[in-house]
């Protein structure tokens, strides 16, 4: 493989073409609506610069959470629409205008601040407006809609966010959708957006004018639907040391494991500082070598973990052999379940010590 760094014991491979294919799939699914891309939190830990660049040919609108992320993205994408989900803090409207960012205004306070800023500048800078339709996180409450502060205000987008869209038949989905239609009626002809990844798979009633997938772009199925998304990443780590232990030997911090029989162990160069949760070992986690399951033995440490490699013929493994953590044999959802969390948290916890490799089919042509 091109350009492998020999000096890092773990590597993350990200397939940019798979992200583009997932984008194409989601936009086909939401046909009729514009499909944005959510790249907050460094594109869910995978690298915002690389991913935004890879999507720039297809995507018109991007979403980030924080103003700072918006500024970084603006330098990568000079001409795209960039929405900032958190809006801005009281001293922040100037930054929005300077970087040509579109704040998502979440409170009457933000609306007032933005409108005052626009009138000082004598210019109607674009803004989006969020409604709280039931999640009680961001957005205007239903009773805010009649407020004086909104009189004559024309956002370029109204939006809301679903709390339970990962469950297809959760009654809150329909309740939020109805409330969204009702609240957005106060802003006729303004484009509307309700669905993130999971909302897209609730069907066309949820698509409105713009959908905002994040996690599905990165290959995680957002709910129980089979969405046939392409896997995007592989995470592997190298064996640093091999050893044999006899029955009764303790393994790792706290000696939480004692060998019930003699076995061969491999100490692998990845740990919880790299995003392999300590809970992963307690949840029965394992690594893989060519289709063979390698149970994690004892506790995950900060920089390493230990697996039982007794099932692999001895001559096949050496110091430096690569084992797979996320890949064809084990997806992110499995790792998440065994770590007691969700795929989103696994992705955004991926550490920064890996060698990172970005593959793009288009580069091969
Ligand atoms: C994070 C986020 C998204 C993207 O969510 P996914 O579940 O990753 O698709 C969309 N909209 C809002 C408001 C968000 O906070």
TrEMBL record:
Molecular function GO labels: alanine racemase activity
Annotated ranges, domain Alanine racemase C-terminal: 232-359
Alphabetical UniProt keywords: Isomerase, Pyridoxal phosphate
SUPFAM superfamilies xrefs: Alanine racemase C-terminal domain-like, PLP-binding barrel
Active site positions, chain numbering: 40 (proton acceptor), 253 (proton acceptor)
N6-(pyridoxal phosphate)lysine sites (modified residues): 40
EC numbers: 5.1.1.1
Pfam families in the cross-refs: Ala_racemase_C, Ala_racemase_N
Recorded superkingdom: Bacteria
Enzyme class name: isomerase
Binding site for substrate: 137, 302
Pathway as given in its UniProt record: Amino-acid biosynthesis; D-alanine biosynthesis; D-alanine from L-alanine: step 1/1
InterPro entries, sorted: Ala_racemase (IPR000821), Ala_racemase/Decarboxylase_C (IPR009006), Ala_racemase_C (IPR011079), Ala_racemase_N (IPR001608), Ala_racemase_pyridoxalP-BS (IPR020622), PLP-binding_barrel (IPR029066)
Protein family (similarity comment): Belongs to the alanine racemase family.
NCBIfam families: alr
PANTHER family xrefs: ALANINE RACEMASE, ALANINE RACEMASE, CATABOLIC-RELATED
Role according to the record: Catalyzes the interconversion of L-alanine and D-alanine. May also act on other amino acids.
Record protein name field: Alanine racemase
Species for this entry: Bombella pollinis
Lineage: Bacteria, Pseudomonadati, Pseudomonadota, Alphaproteobacteria, Acetobacterales
Gene designation per UniProt: alr
């Amino acid at each position: 493989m091109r350009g492998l760094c020999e000096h890092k014991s773990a590597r993350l491979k990200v397939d940019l073409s798979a992200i583009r294919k997932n984008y194409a799939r989601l936009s086909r699914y939401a046909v009729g609506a514009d499909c944005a891309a959510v790249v907050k939190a460094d594109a869910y830990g995978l690298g915002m610069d690389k991913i935004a660049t890879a999507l720039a040919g297809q995507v018109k609108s991007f979403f980030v959470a924080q103003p700072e992320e918006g500024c970084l993205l603006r330098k990568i994408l000079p001409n795209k629409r960039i929405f900032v989900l958190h809006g801005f803090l009281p001293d922040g409207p100037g930054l929005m205008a300077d970087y040509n960012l579109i704040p998502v205004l979440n409170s009457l306070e933000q609306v007032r601040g933005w409108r005052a800023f626009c009138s000082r500048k004598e210019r109607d800078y674009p803004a989006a407006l969020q409604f709280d339709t039931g999640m009680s996180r961001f957005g205007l409450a239903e009773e805010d809609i009649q407020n004086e502060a909104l009189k004559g205000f024309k956002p370029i987008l109204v939006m809301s966010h679903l709390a339970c869209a990962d469950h297809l038949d959760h009654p809150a989905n329909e309740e939020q959708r109805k409330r969204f239609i009702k609240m957005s009626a106060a802003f006729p002809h303004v484009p509307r957006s309700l669905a993130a990844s999971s909302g897209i798979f609730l069907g066309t009633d949820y698509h409105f004018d713009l959908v905002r997938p994040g996690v599905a772009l990165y290959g995680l199925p957002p709910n129980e639907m089979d969405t046939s998304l392409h896997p995007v990443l592989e995470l592997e780590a190298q064996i640093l040391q091999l050893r044999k232990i006899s029955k009764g030997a303790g393994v790792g911090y706290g000696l939480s494991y004692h060998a019930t029989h003699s076995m061969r162990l491999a100490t692998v160069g990845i740990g919880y500082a790299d995003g392999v949760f300590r809970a992963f070992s307690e949840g029965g986690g394992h690594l893989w070598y060519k289709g063979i399951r390698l149970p994690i033995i004892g506790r995950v440490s900060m920089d390493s973990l230990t697996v039982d490699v007794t099932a692999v013929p001895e001559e096949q493994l050496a110091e430096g052999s690569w084992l797979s953590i996320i890949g064809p044999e084990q997806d992110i959802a499995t790792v998440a379940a065994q770590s007691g969390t969700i795929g989103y948290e696994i992705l955004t916890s991926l550490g920064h010590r890996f060698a990172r490799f970005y593959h793009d089919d288009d580069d091969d042509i």
